[in-house]
Each structure stands twice: as C-alpha cells, then as structure tokens.
Design goal:
The chain has 165 residues and is α+β, with helices and mostly antiparallel strands. Strands 1, 2, 3, 4, 5 and 8 form a six-stranded antiparallel β-sheet that branches. It has a two-stranded antiparallel ribbon with strand order 6-7. It has a single domain, classed as 7,8-Dihydro-6-hydroxymethylpterin-pyrophosphokinase HPPK (Alpha-Beta Plaits). Helix content is 26%, strand content 25%. The longest helix is centred in the middle third of the chain and has 14 residues. It contains four helices and eight strands; from the N terminus they run βαβββαβββααβ. The chain is globular. Strand 6 and strand 7 form a beta hairpin.
C-alpha cells in the first residue's frame, strides 16, 4: 500500500527556482513514487548563517518506500545536485534542501530521521505552503491541524509569494 509524504524543498544558491524544479523532477523519477500536488513557490528570509533568501515550497507525494528508504533517495538527490553538508553547521546556504515533513501519520524519532520534522510547527516557510496542500492535516504529535498551527505561529521571518514565470 502506498505511503503519503510531504516534502519541504528549499534553495538559496545559484538559480534557486531551477534548483527547486530540478529537485521535483528528480523526485518524480524515483521508481514507485509520484508527486500528487505542489504548493506555490515562496521566497523567505534566511535562517542562521545563510545570507541570501530561499525559494521554498512543499510537495505531496505517494511512494512505495518506507521513510528510511525515501530519506536515502532524497539525500542522494541533494548530493547529485551538488549539496555539500558541513559538519556542525546548520542553517547555512544550500543549493537544495529536501526534508520529510510528514510521513503518513507516523512519529519517527531516529538519529538521522525525525518525523514530523521537529521544526515544522515553528516555520512559516513550511506551514504556509503546507497549508495550501493540506490545511486540515493533523500534526501527529501536536494534535493540531496545519491551518491551526499556521494561525498560532510566532515566526516573524519575512516570506512572500513568488509569481509564476
């Protein structure tokens, strides 16, 4: 039986929109996986050490893979697209970032994978596009809908909708 997952996508290096859409194209090529919906694109103020604004969005997908195998394949996409991970450095600039936000209604707490994504409820650049796709989806740990989490959000980072084209 296929699984339903929501993936956060971000890029703030190079041609950010092209990176974003290339990642979606590569995800669609994962055997047994298909993208069901895509949010609008948003430009968001960077976190941490990153200097340039991010292009962000969320996709909903259906996959035959479990969460560990899906993560492995997403990390392979990041690597082949040129992402370099720097040990001990979080929230830096990156050519592409692919995060499993939600996977079915599972709660996973492993060293290399935490689902729901631990920062999901704190980030406007995640909740806004996620609310486009699934506003009534309930966060399995917090027992609150995506729209309720967005309404109660304290994040003051700037974000705006990007026009198509």
């Amino acid at each position: 039986m296929p699984h339903r997952a929501f993936i956060g996508i971000g890029s703030n290096l190079g041609d950010r929109k092209a990176n974003y859409f290339e990642a979606i194209d590569r995800i669609q090529k994962i055997p047994g996986t298909r993208v069901l919906k895509q949010s609008s694109l948003y430009e968001s103020e960077p976190l941490g050490d990153a200097k340039t604004w991010f292009v962000n969005g969320v996709i909903e997908l259906e996959t035959e893979y479990g969460p560990d195998e899906l993560l492995k394949r997403l990390l392979q996409i990041e690597t082949t697209m040129g992402r370099k991970r720097v040990s001990g450095k979080r929230w830096g600039s990156r050519i592409i970032d692919l995060d499993i936000l939600l996977f079915d209604s599972e709660i996973i707490n492993k060293r290399n994978l935490k689902v729901p994504h631990p920062e999901l409820q704190n980030r406007r650049f995640v909740l806004l596009p996620l609310s486009e796709l699934a506003p009534q989806l309930v966060h399995p740990k917090l027992a609150a809908s995506v729209s309720a989490l967005l309404a109660g959000l304290k994040d003051r980072k700037k974000i705006h909708l990007l026009r198509a084209g």
